[in-house]
Every structure is written in C-alpha cells, then in structure tokens.
Amino acid sequence: MTTKRAVVLLSGGLDSATVGAIARSEGFDVLALSFDYGQRHRAELDAARSIATALSAADHKIVGIDLRTFGNSALTADIAVPKDRDAGEMANEIPITYVPARNTIFLSFALAFAEVARANDIFIGVNALDYSGYPDCRPEYLAAYQAMARLATKAAIEGSQQLEIRAPLLYMSKADIIKLGTDLGVDYSITVSCYDASPTGEACGHCDSCVLRMKGFTEAGLEDCTRYARQREAL
After folding, report:
1. Does residue 11 sit within a domain?
2. What is the percent of the chain where pLDDT is above 70?
3. What's the pLDDT score for residue 12?
4. Is the pLDDT of residue 2 over 70?
C-alpha cells in the first residue's frame, strides 16, 4: 500500500493542531512545517513541537525566515497588538496583526516541501468566518494559489503530482473547530494562539485571537484549557 503524505502547516495554534489531527485521521503521514519568522509570539514554536510529537509526525521542519525585515505588522514590528476589541471592530478592517503576504510565503515553502516529499496534499488551518479579515484566508485566495501551484513545479508538469490545498476549517465556526478537534483527541492545552503570549506561552486573554478562542470554547460548551497570564471572563 502506498503511504499517503501530507504537508501540514503547523503554527502551534488551535486551528493548525486541529488540521493536523484531521490529516492524521484521514490516513496521512503528517509532514509538519513551521516557521520562525521573527514573530513576537515565538512560544507558538514550542507548542508546534509538542503538537508534532502528539501527531506522531513523520517529519517536522522549522524554517527560519525573518519577516521583521519588512515589518508593518504588530506580530513582527514594535507595534502594539490590539486588545479588547469586539466582533464589530474586528470585522471593520484588516487588523495590524496581518503579516504581509505571510500565507503566500508559507504555502510556497510548503509547495517545495510537498514536491520533494512526493506529497499531493497541503493542509492549512485558514478560516473564512473567524479570521479577523485577513485577505490570505479567503477561499478565492486558496483557489488561486492552488491553480498557480499546479503550474509551478516539475512534478506537476510531469504529471506525478496533482496538488491540493486542503483547508478543512474554512467554513467552520471556532466552536465547531474545537468540538471536532476534541473528538479527534486534540489536547488544546498545549496549543498557543495568543498574538501577545508570554515567553512561556501564557495567553494575554485580550488580543483578537484570544477573544475568538475564548468565545469558541464558550459556544462549544467546553472548558477553556488555555493558560492565561491574566484571567478574564469568557465573552
């Protein structure tokens, strides 16, 4: 039997951990790919290592690229992370936590990894509902990237690869993602989603990512296992 391999973009957060569990549940050998890109919340990389171990990943590569070179994001520059915003504020504009072209850069590395590893599938944890308005989390973006990727590699041209960009969480609410991941055995206590996490991974409880995560656990009716630096009641 031919082994199925999938490259899974693994940030260390809730969504990517769930996507990794989905890939494993579908019978894929997980080839995890994470990035040390100069992000202020580098504790997510420790979380990614723990998640890769929990997934029994066949490989886990952490690629160093310094997006602080370009800055213009609260995650890669000396810009304050927005805190205590409501859903209306989050939906009003693309937030300063957007990292320019990040998913395009990450998917390009994943494309190279997939070609070398002879994998036909790339899993990414983007979401078109609770996504804070990021342009590279939209379905039309993913479709366009997949179309480009199928023209971009030797494997595709020679017919040995028919790449699929898999985004199984695309139309799911955060609550439904958490319920699914729980059913698949994901340990969310080891994940780090916070944009302003402490060096040891405690969440701030106030940034957009924390607000959406807390709301997800509340709506899912499940205990929030997140480690918070400052306690805050779920919204």
Report:
1. yes
2. 95
3. 98
4. no
CA angle 90, 94, 95 (to 5 degrees): 65
115 located within any domain: yes
Is 228 inside a domain boundary?
Answer: no
Q: Which residues of 15-29 are buried (b: 16+ CB within 10 A; e: fewer)?
A: bbbbbbbbbbeeebb
Single-letter amino acid, residue 229: A
Q: What is the sign of the dihedral through the CA atoms of 90, 191, 175 and 215?
A: negative
How far is Cα 233 from Cα 235, in angstroms, rounded to an integer?
A: 6
The letter for the amino acid at 159 is G
Question: Which range marks the domain in which residue 65 is found?
Answer: 5-220
Residue 172 lies in a domain: yes
Burial of 147 (0-12, 13-18, 19+ CB in 10 A): exposed
Q: How many domains does the chain have?
A: 1
| 0.90 exceeded by pTM | yes
